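Human: Cast an eye over this sequence-structure pair and say how the chain folds.
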Amino acid sequence: MSDFRLKVFLSVAKNLSFTKASQELFVSQPAITKHIQELETCYQARLFDRQGNKISLTEAGKLLQEHSEKILEDYKRLEYEMHLLHNEYIGDLKLGASTTIAQYVLPPLLANFIAKFPQVNLSLLNGNSREIEADLSRFVEAHDRSYSRALEEIREGRKQSHWMWYIFPQIVGLGLSSTSRFYAIADLEEARAYMQHPMLGAHMIEICGVLLGLSANDAEDVMGYPDDLKLRSSMTLFSQAVPSVKIFQQVLDKYFDGKMDQKTLEILGVHI
């Protein structure tokens, strides 16, 4: 039901490549170009700047990217709730289980589930308990969508769009929204796993380095309110999780006079 042109646009925006979007969506490159041109005609605005073989989002493109993500999520939610009216269940269900349970307990249960709910896409993560807890795919998917935009905004000195919870994660218990709960870090172990992830850890170090390089020293000027408070809690969490990585304390020193977030420390059970 959703506008396929928005899916095409988001794929191009994420990959910054018409070719990669074509491969990702299994659509010809001329068709990708046609969809983008239709959107540009519709909004009477150029969505991408083209410089040789490279493309980048224009201001109009950034605006459309932000709203397109929300629109497509709303479409998914609408489709789900409409099917519920008819006792139909669709969507994605991700399960995590230890090796023993995955091999000996779940197979007959999952077979019955699939037979009863054939339209649900079921996936199973198999590993030990710590590996299940440390599954970071939700962050990886979010970074694929939004990290480049977040990094660009910080380089420009002002956060503009919505990406705080998965770029600067916080400890569980601080947020009440469904998004905050979904991206909350369970404990210090998961925070360490986040930093050990080759992409997520590198992104965190990179964007913190950009924060340190800004001339501004007021977190609210850069992040806005209340995301300045979220930055403080995130830096507090990761400074405790990996104290050998000094950049988190450096961000706290620059923007918060070195003071950590007390609520985060309380949840972690740390007394300083």
Q: What stands out?
A: The chain has three domains: 4-61, 69-133, 137-268.
